[in-house]
Amino acid sequence: MKAKIRKIATFVEETLIEQGQNVSPPTRRAAAVAVIENPFAGRYQEDLSGLVDVGEELGQLLAERAVAALGIPGEKVESYGKAAAVGEDGELEHAAAVLHPKLGAPFRKVLGKGAALIPSSKKRGGLGVSLDVPLGHKDAAFVRSHFDGMEVRINDAPRANEIMVAVAVTSSGRPLPRVGGLKASEIKGEDGLR
Amino acid sequence: MPEVKIRKFMTAVEEIFHEGGQPAAKPHRRAAVLAVIENPYSGCFVENIQPFMEDLKPLGLKMARKLVEALGGDAKAIEGYGKGAIVGEAGESEHAALWHAPGGYGMRETLGGAKAIVPSSKKVAGPGARLDVPITHINASYVRSHFDAMEVGVADAPRADEIVLALVMTTGARIHARSGGLAAKDIKGEDGLR
After folding, report:
1. Where are the domains of chain B?
2. pLDDT tens digit string along B39-84?
3. b/e string for A6-30 if b means 16 or more Cβ within 10 A?
4. Does the residue A40 lie in any domain?
5. Distance from CA of B152 to the nearest CA of A (A)
6. Which of A143, B22, B129, B143 has its CA 20 to 30 A from that of B155?
7. Which CATH architecture has domain B6-186?
8. A155 lies in which domain range?
9. Which residues of A touch B11 (CB under 8 A)?
10. Which of A8, A14, A153 sits opposite B9 (nearest CB)?
11. pTM, whole model, 2 decimals?
12. B16 contacts A69? CB cut-off 8 A
């Protein structure tokens, strides 16, 4: 099954000052969001493999869009995340089918690597619902400076029969990380955790 | 003259393929660039605020250039525009009005002249507030196909002592424009209206 895409939105945030302190270089993060038709809206569908294929397609498309918006090579991306919001006639399981089985592999391919689990969130909601995309270091989930989240929303989505699918990437952790824990400079990056 | 202190930039791009009708041969694209800046006049009444307009001019230019870049880099592809501002709670709506001149200047410079008045909206609101930025044709305000709006906002802005400044541009008519009126191909483009 191919994705029926109504629109794609990209967002880039660049933080230059946080709590009065200059952030140098500025932290940057980007999200790409596709609004797609939910082929299974309004009914119970046992086999969700069609949406699994859609997830694979969007994994590449959205990762490429987000990385392009960020303006750095995929290999330079430091953290990532994904999320989906299902319109009111859909099911949370539809978000799961898009996000979990096959979206990750093409996403990681665009980044060159990505040993860590891609943190995710999902919800059902109406038009303009905000989606908080969780962010974690792409090669070592325990890197504390890179735990973060990015809010995205599109005022006219998701309609009842739509799904909003988002991926987010960053060039950096939080603007002023200072709560200790594992540092990005200390990771092995093999098991996806440390 | 107050310094322009920028806390963050946000760029949002929407690429619209359809809205229930036949997908267009050329997707409709619209983009917004937002800057979160410190409000130099927050917290007290300042009578003479006009000098800040001059200070904001370089930022207006920078944001307009970012916008054209976000829409593909060709200023000639831009057909619609708009601007707006959200003032944090320690400010007044008059502070938002400071954006009229520098925001318009930045876009006209970047687009190589544009005849129509730049439509605008403004309000005083808290962090995460959304603003519907009105959009019209850049050379003739009465072009009906280009009347549009883009909702913008930043999750953590404006704080009480901040202003969110917004510029918006589009690459054409609404995706399924069919409500008649003055068409872009029929404009004279002399008085900025028709």
Report:
1. 6-186
2. 999 999 999 999 999 999 999 999 999 999 999 999 999 999 999 9
3. bbbbbbbbbbbbbeeeebeebbbbb
4. yes
5. 9
6. A143
7. 2-Layer Sandwich (3.30)
8. 5-186
9. 10-12, 69
10. A14
11. 0.89
12. no
| Total beta-carbon pairs less than 8 A apart between chain A and chain B | 56
Q: Which of B52, B132, B40, B53 is nearest to B90 (CA)?
A: B40
* Nearest chain A residue (CA) to B22: A6
3-state secondary structure of B155: coil
Question: How far from A143 is each of A148, A191, B110, CA to CA, in Å?
Answer: 11, 13, 42
Contacting residues of A for B155, CB less than 8 Å apart: 130, 151
Please report, in tens digits, the pLDDT of each residue of chain A (194 residues total): 999 999 999 999 999 999 999 999 999 999 999 999 999 999 999 999 999 999 999 999 999 999 999 999 999 999 999 999 999 999 999 999 999 999 999 999 999 999 999 999 999 999 999 999 999 999 999 999 999 999 999 999 999 999 999 999 999 999 999 998 999 999 998 899 99
**A194 domain residue, yes or no:** no
* CATH number for position A167: 3.30.1330.110
Could you tell me which of A41, A40, A46, A44 has the C-alpha nearest to residue A1?
Answer: A40
**Structural domains counted in chain A:** 1
Interchain contact, A14 vs B8, CB within 8 Å: yes
Can you tell me the distance from the alpha carbon of B84 to that of A49, in angstroms, rounded to the nearest whole number?
A: 44
Residue A119 belongs to some domain of the structure: yes
Nearest to A16 among B6, B19, B155 (CB): B6
